[in-house]
């Protein structure tokens, strides 16, 4: 069947938006005037072979409501009271307050596709600071268990949840486990310690009395002195400061500083011998592996016991070595919690994780390119290609991927990024990573909101450029499912995404119970945003990490016709779509692709 399709599309929907990085979303005053442009395209559609009930519909619209329309909103409109936005009854729809504003303001096309993760620390743990980040577009709040106390972690989790409840956000929570293999102690309360050239420092597993004696550093690993050799090189934080090992006296290791610098509490330590990183496989350090494994295991158990019922959406596992750890943890989660469904993110930050990359990613629910520690384990010049490879494998295996560490490092201290940092962020966006992460920039930097605004504006700009250039990278997307029904879903999603691009539709709609169908669409990285409708809050929060997905919580049935009618009217009532918008809908209940204009 072939139809001639006419519809209006506002020509300036993709105009870059100037955000006002204000701490409250109801202070934005966006007014977008839409000038229409008639376009005419030929839509060639074929009936879905897998569905006996539904064949694709293409409706002709002569609707021109976009013409000269002024989209605006009042502060009251977006300041939805909790009673309205969080009624989980069948007649309501939940969407992120920031997304709602963005959609109304800019239209579908220019919503941000790349998601943003912010590490929460002293600079951002207050309710108002968290709200400012949420307003700025934070999709996931990361809490690094290496820092702060359990009490502090719990307080932050509570605040994020309260923010979601009270202000209509859907910020997901990621716990990042303590996993640095060997690291320094907390410096007895000092914020840093400065090592100068040629100074002799003592590193020891001994606990020192307070105040910390001069030029001493406590180390977390019992076998430290045994495993090091005189002549080894000791690197703090991947080489920010360097020492040569000159003498061992019992548990104490004396080192001479060769590259001076500032050492931060709990900084990561690595040692190098004859130009190679010393690690357990070298047989020189037989104990590290087992120690770290049991250490990590106990931390994980603690983490889960303490946090699993408190609304953690993701748990990021540091220094993953093999798929085994992930499988173990996943079965632990499955056995322990029936309702709460915590996604497990593998942090790729060691040589071993690079070696077992595919099996680790396959076993996980997502991965993080943890460039901080990775850059301490492999030569720095190999980090970019490792990043590209990890991003690519994640996409092929349909797992979300986060690019992390030092994206905007200079913004810890300065209000503007370096050109090189902007180029780095652009490259991650161009690689179509699902998410970008701020670490120190948001945890303890001076300009957390500005750093987030930079991530946001660079993402939106690069995504737009990419769409305008029509640069589709030719990536093979192999089958990921094992059953025939999985294959059908994958085919439907890739066809729907292709149709969406060819037809220039305004949005893809996906009705999904588990989120799987939504992730299959996201994987295709279509030109238009993907509205993902799901009935549970936890699935909605988890979808927040995936490229291009705008998750909504709404109850729906197996009847697609009524689902569509219901969501159309709910979204229209909220001013988020309008008559004439062209939409492609898929669902995991019904194997079909529907193309239609919003009535
Ligand atoms: N909860 C916190 N409390 C205090 N400082 C924090 C906290 N979280 C992060 N930071 C600070 O921000 C910096 C960067 O955070 P990040 O989470 O990247 O930690 P990291 O020490 O580099 O470890 P990792 O390799 O796990 O990321 C930390 O080194 C620390 O100084
Ligand atoms: C994020 C992290 O753990 C790293 O970059 O090392
Ligand atoms: K960590
Ligand atoms: Mg790390």
TrEMBL record:
This is Pyruvate kinase. NCBIfam families: pyruv_kin. Its EC number is 2.7.1.40. Gene3D superfamilies: Phosphoenolpyruvate-binding domains, PK beta-barrel domain-like, Pyruvate kinase, C-terminal domain. Keywords: ATP-binding, Glycolysis, Kinase, Magnesium, Metal-binding, Nucleotide-binding, Pyruvate, Transferase. Its cofactor is K(+). Pathway: Carbohydrate degradation; glycolysis; pyruvate from D-glyceraldehyde 3-phosphate: step 5/5. Residues 490-589 form the Pyruvate kinase C-terminal domain. It comes from Salix suchowensis. Pfam families: PK, PK_C. Belongs to the pyruvate kinase family. Residues 112-451 form the Pyruvate kinase barrel domain. It catalyses: pyruvate + ATP = phosphoenolpyruvate + ADP + H(+). SUPFAM superfamilies: Phosphoenolpyruvate/pyruvate domain, PK beta-barrel domain-like, PK C-terminal domain-like.
């Amino acid at each position: 069947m072939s139809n001639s399709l006419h519809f209006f599309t506002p020509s300036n929907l993709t105009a870059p938006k100037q955000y006002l990085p204000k701490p409250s979303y109801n202070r934005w005053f966006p007014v977008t005037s839409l000038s229409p442009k008639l376009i005419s395209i030929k839509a060639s559609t074929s009936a879905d072979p897998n569905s006996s009930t539904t064949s694709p519909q293409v409706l002709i619209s002569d609707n021109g409501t976009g013409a000269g329309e002024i989209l605006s909103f009042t502060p009251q409109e977006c300041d939805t009271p909790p009673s309205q936005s969080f009624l989980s009854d069948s007649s309501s729809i939940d969407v992120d307050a920031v997304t709602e504003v963005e959609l109304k303001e800019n239209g579908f096309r220019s919503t941000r596709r790349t998601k943003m993760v912010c590490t929460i620390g002293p600079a951002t743990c207050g309710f108002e600071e968290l709200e400012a980040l949420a307003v700025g577009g934070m999709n996931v709040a990361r809490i690094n268990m290496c820092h702060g106390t359990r009490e502090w972690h719990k307080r932050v989790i509570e605040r994020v949840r309260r923010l979601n409840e009270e202000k209509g956000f859907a910020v997901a929570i990621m716990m990042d486990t303590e996993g640095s293999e060997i690291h320094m102690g907390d410096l007895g309360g000092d914020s840093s310690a400065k090592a100068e050239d040629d100074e002799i420092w003592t590193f020891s597993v001994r606990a020192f009395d307070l105040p910390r004696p001069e030029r001493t550093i406590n180390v977390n690993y019992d076998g430290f002195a045994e495993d090091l050799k005189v002549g080894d090189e000791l690197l703090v934080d991947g080489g920010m400061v360097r020492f040569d090992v000159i003498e061992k006296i019992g548990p104490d290791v004396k080192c001479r500083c060769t590259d001076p610098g500032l050492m931060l509490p709990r900084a990561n330590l690595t040692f190098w011998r004859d130009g190679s990183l010393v690690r357990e496989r070298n047989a020189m350090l037989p104990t590290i592996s087992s120690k770290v494994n049991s250490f990590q295991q106990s931390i994980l158990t603690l983490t889960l016991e303490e946090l699993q019922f408190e609304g953690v959406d993701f748990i990021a596992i540091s220094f993953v070595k093999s798929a085994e750890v992930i499988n173990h943890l996943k079965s632990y989660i499955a056995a322990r919690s029936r309702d709460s469904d915590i996604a497990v993110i593998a942090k790729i930050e060691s040589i071993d994780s690079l070696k077992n990359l595919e099996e680790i990613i396959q076993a996980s629910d997502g991965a993080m390119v943890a460039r901080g520690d990775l850059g301490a384990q492999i030569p720095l010049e190999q980090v970019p290609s490792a990043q590209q490879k990890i991003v690519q494998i994640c996409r092929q295996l349909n797992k979300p991927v986060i690019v992390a560490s030092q994206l905007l490092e200079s913004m810890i201290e300065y209000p503007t990024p370096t050109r090189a940092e902007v180029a780095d962020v652009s490259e991650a966006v161009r690689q179509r990573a699902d998410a970008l992460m701020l670490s120190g920039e948001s945890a303890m930097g001076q300009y957390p909101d500005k750093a987030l605004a930079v991530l946001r504006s660079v993402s939106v700009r690069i995504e737009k450029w990419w769409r305008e250039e029509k640069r589709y990278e030719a990536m093979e997307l192999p089958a990921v499912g094992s059953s025939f029904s999985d294959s059908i879903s994958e085919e439907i999603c890739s066809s729907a995404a292709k149709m969406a691009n060819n037809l220039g539709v305004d949005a893809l709609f996906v009705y999904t119970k588990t989120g799987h169908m939504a992730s299959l669409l996201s994987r295709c990285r279509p030109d238009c945003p993907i509205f993902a409708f799901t009935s549970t809050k936890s699935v909605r929060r988890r979808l927040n990490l995936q490229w291009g997905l705008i998750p909504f919580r709404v109850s729906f049935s197996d009847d697609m016709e009524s689902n569509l009618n219901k969501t159309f009217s709910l979204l229209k009532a909220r001013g988020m779509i309008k008559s004439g918008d062209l939409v492609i809908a898929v669902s995991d209940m019904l194997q079909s692709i529907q193309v239609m204009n919003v009535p």
